[in-house]
# Entry
Amino acid sequence: MDQSVFRPLHIASCQIACSSCNLREICLPSGLTRSELAMVDERLVSVRRKVVKGDYLYRAGDPFQSLYAVWTGFFKTCVNSKEGRDQVTGFQMSGELMGLDGIGSKRHEVDAIALEDSQVCVIPFEDLEALSHDIASLQHHVHKMMSREIVRNHGVLLQLGSMLADERVAAFLLNLIYRLEARGFSGSSIVLRMSREEIGSFLGLKLETVSRTFSKFQAEGLLSVHSRQIEVTDAAGLQMRLDSANC
Amino acid sequence: MDQSVFRPLHIASCQIACSSCNLREICLPSGLTRSELAMVDERLVSVRRKVVKGDYLYRAGDPFQSLYAVWTGFFKTCVNSKEGRDQVTGFQMSGELMGLDGIGSKRHEVDAIALEDSQVCVIPFEDLEALSHDIASLQHHVHKMMSREIVRNHGVLLQLGSMLADERVAAFLLNLIYRLEARGFSGSSIVLRMSREEIGSFLGLKLETVSRTFSKFQAEGLLSVHSRQIEVTDAAGLQMRLDSANC
DNA sequence: CGCGAACTTGAGGCGTGTCAACCCCTGTGG
DNA sequence: CCACAGGGGTTGACACGCCTCAAGTTCGCG
# Structure
């Protein structure tokens, strides 16, 4: 529906080019000049990969070769410890980068799973490093994106370490709204692509707690829930849930 | 005591050179050739800064200019949300890098505070990007270090999201042991540089819970506690605390 | 030596997990 | 067409782990 904006009429015939992608200002090439963009088109991004709902884009342990930028669709990334624990570490939507975890060890350290039929742009990391060598602003931008990933994780740490269940869920929804609005979608009408269990895993809560919290917010008039369709009627009220904590 | 190994006799006269630093294999220049190391000495790391116990190395909001590598001492980094929450996001010891959070926004996003009298090597980030341009292996190594920081955070996420208090404390101690041993220190005799409250903040627990857990481990014969001096007598037993969870 | 900060320990309360029942929706096969 | 199974979601009762509050002790530093 809303997403038609991102879906080309003929995928097969679609030129894979950052310069003509409407995500270019959000995605990897953000901030590049026209001529730099042309170099990215030519030397870097040439393959797009489809991942159907439920399939792995990559698994923890797979050899690392490429980063992936989400073009359409929605992903989750999960860590699995050897002790059998696992946890969702993030949800990725269009324009967001996946795979940075794999650079350090040459192997992916998390699983990346599509939550709906998706397409990603493949960014071979060796090529990215080579091109960064020739385009200083690209090199800097890569550093920025990695840094932001670190900062993002700090935010999640804060959620998991110091927030009550209500606050975690409110922060989760507000973050989702923020990112959807940055992509031109309505911030008040959200379709969740993930289950209650996946939200819970991400927030360090059980699925029942997530479900109860949604019901509670609904009873308080902050939003209305119809399974995965959420209508946020009072985003400011959600924000107050965060501000009013800890006095 | 053990740390004398890292403390030069005359600080003022000490040559600031990665090539002669005994942390070079753990720290930023790990994996560089002799000649590359010489370039790092010449063009990159020339200033060392002292930070006395309790002082800020930098604060959230400060303009970002440099990364810092811990040379001696011990730090914590903290996020502060505008709502008044705050949380320790990590503890840094010798050879570890601080400041990566600041690249994305040109401002530091966390506070970095010395937990004991410390010294850091200042790494101007512009110079690092410039030198990375000339030394491909340095560029790659910077990427690796950032990637590892991301992966490290995933591990903390897992702790905060899915572990009981005992398990968090056990994982915390085992991680500390691992890092101390990598630096040639005893893994069984630990001196904590941080308070119970700081450990609690890092692990998403209250200080009383941390204290109780130490006492519990002591009662079970896994370790003995004398305020901040911890003798780990059964590291395998601590590890079992992690493995046996969740069945 | 004396003060304040850090730490320990206990008692009780609260938030979230656990377990279970039930509903809704979808897909499958008789 | 209906019966049925299965997965996801909701809701309730209860348990338990951690937090809160408070008192007392030890440690560190002037």
Observations:
- The radius of gyration of chain B is 19 Å.
